[in-house]
Amino acid sequence: GAVVSQHPSRVICKSGTSVKIECRSLDFQATTMFWYRQFPKQSLMLMATSNEGSKATYEQGVEKDKFLINHASLTLSTLTVTSAHPEDSSFYICSARSSTPSFDTQYFGPGTRLTVL
Amino acid sequence: GEDVEQSLFLSVREGDSSVINCTYTDSSSTYLYWYKQEPGAGLQLLTYIFSNMDMKQDQRLTVLLNKKDKHLSLRIADTQTGDSAIYFCAEKDNAGNMLTFGGGTRLMVKP
After folding, report:
1. One pLDDT digit (tens) per residue for chain B, 111 residues
2. Which of A79, B1, B3, B58 gets the most CB atoms within 10 Å of its CB?
3. Cβ atoms of residues A46 and A33 within 8 Å
4. Which chain A residue's Cα is nearest to B102?
């Protein structure tokens, strides 16, 4: 199947710093990528939909100035957590949409564990 | 909005069959998916079924879809300890490109 990578896989940072997470579709082009947040023992919460060449669409309750999304190419989307605080500590997962005339799905990255001290 | 529900936990013995159930409310669902998540990892697409299908089998995995009752199930034959993980069902509607996920079912396989 299609491969989506995420970097870094794990990051520990001090409160107040900014952290950038990259999401890449390695063997297909993705006009749409998604960013999710997952709390322990819970399902995925969609944060935003990232569209190549245009502004991201944020879900209700997600601060767009805090979680900056850039989708500069068909294979790369970045999520920057600005001025991170301990409550931003979470598992962040991206996915890339692969859509053909016969099949439509999202392929997920391995996730990034963010710990803010 | 759309709602997808799953039972939280399932425990089986190695070699037995596992059946994970999922219900959804969106009658316009086009695709329904099963994803597997191992600890500390992202989601792996296991299988999917298109809404005009009743059943799909892929090696040890069998997906059954009852569109009338909006019920989806995943059967894992000959369950192995390596199948221990959280399984998420998800649906995609005809209108958008987002997925709606269930809460996940934690499958524990005992040797």
Report:
1. 568 999 999 999 999 999 999 999 988 888 899 999 998 899 999 999 988 889 999 999 999 999 999 999 999 999 999 999 999 999 987 766 788 999 999 999 999
2. A79
3. no
4. A43
Closest residue on chain A to B93 (Cα):
A104
* Residues shown for chain B: 111
Check: CB of residue A107 under 8 Å from CB of residue B45: yes
Kindly report, residue by residue over A50-105, the tens digit of the pLDDT: 988 888 999 999 999 999 999 988 999 999 999 999 999 999 999 999 877 777 78
B47 near A CB under 8 A: no
With CA atoms as reference, the chain A residue closest to B38 would be A110
Name the nearest CA neighbour of B55 among B69, B67, B44: B67
Block residue for tokens 């995925």: A44
- Point out the residue among B42, B97, B102 whose CB comes nearest to the CB of A110: B42
Contact A93 B44 (CB under 8 A): no
Amino acid at A16: G
Query: Taking chain A, what is the end-to-end CA distance rounded to the nearest angstrom?
Result: 37
Token representation of residue B52: 């005009």
A99 DSSP 8-state letter:
E
3-class state of residue B81 by DSSP: helix
CB contact under 8 A, A105 and B31: yes
Q: Does A83 touch chain B (CB under 8 A)?
A: no
The alpha helices in chain A, defined as continuous H runs, are: none
